[in-house]
Amino acid sequence: MENNDSFIQNIVAKEPNPALQEIGQKVLHSQRILPSEGLILFEQGSLSYVGALANWIATKMHDHKVYFNRNFHIEPTNVCLYSCTFCSYSRLIKKRSDGWEYTMDQMMDIVKSYDGKDVTEVHIVGGVLPQYDLKFYTEFFQQIKKHRPELHIKALTPVEYHYIFKKAGVSYEEGNENDQRKWCWILAWRWC
């Protein structure tokens, strides 16, 4: 155990909840916690207790190296063909007038508005509409990379990928293959 071990051992020992103390002991002994124990941490653990355990694990694994992502978001539209229950801001296609639908030029203007700013990533998610297809996103991602090659692109939800691949008539495997001549984009964490 490292220098901050006595600190975390003290925190775990002083935890009044026996279940949380037991989980803390597992963490201190590098034992994997069960999903049910994760739920206990979530429901019963204070933010400071859970944060202290997480910080101890991160420091143990990675020393004091911390990496931060500085990103900005683009939501091409909030109009969608689907009505997913997890989406809190979307407008159904029948209420299209209540929403927005950006053009590629408008979205590139958003990208350009971050020129000279210390950002590392653009996060792109939004609704599913027919005009936002494989050709559209391929061209859009290529334009972003041409304008700002160092910018990481994290984009699209599984629902968006499903629609785009289905509309293009390609399988998930074809849509995800790493052939930059065929598709500029593959999966959100493997951009061209």
Relevant terms:
192 residues; mainly alpha; Transcription Regulator spoIIAA; two-stranded parallel ribbon; 8 helices; 45% helix
The radius of gyration computed from the alpha-carbon positions, rounded to a whole number of angstroms, is 22 Å
Number of helices: 8
Strand order of the largest sheet: 1-4-5
Output the CATH topology of the largest domain: Transcription Regulator spoIIAA
Number of strands: 5
CATH architecture of the largest domain: 2-Layer Sandwich
Mean pLDDT: 86
Strand content: 5-15%
Percentage of residues assigned to helices: 40-55%
Describe the structure.
The chain has 192 residues and is mainly alpha-helical. It folds into 2 domains: 5-62, no CATH class; 71-176, Transcription Regulator spoIIAA, CATH 3.30.750. The chain is 45% helix and 8% strand. It has 8 helices and 5 strands, in the order ααααβββαβαβαα. The protein has helices spanning 5-14, 18-28, 35-44, 47-62, 104-112, 134-147, 158-168, 172-176; strands at 71-74, 79-80, 91-92, 121-124, 152-155. Helix 6 (134-147) links the parallel strand 4 (121-124) and strand 5. It is elongated.
Provide a compact summary of the structure.
The chain has 192 residues and is mainly α.
SSE map:
Elements lengths: L4 H10 L3 H11 L6 H10 L2 H16 L8 E4 L4 E2 L10 E2 L11 H9 L8 E4 L9 H14 L4 E4 L2 H11 L3 H5 L16
Parallel strand pairs: 1-4, 2-3, 4-5
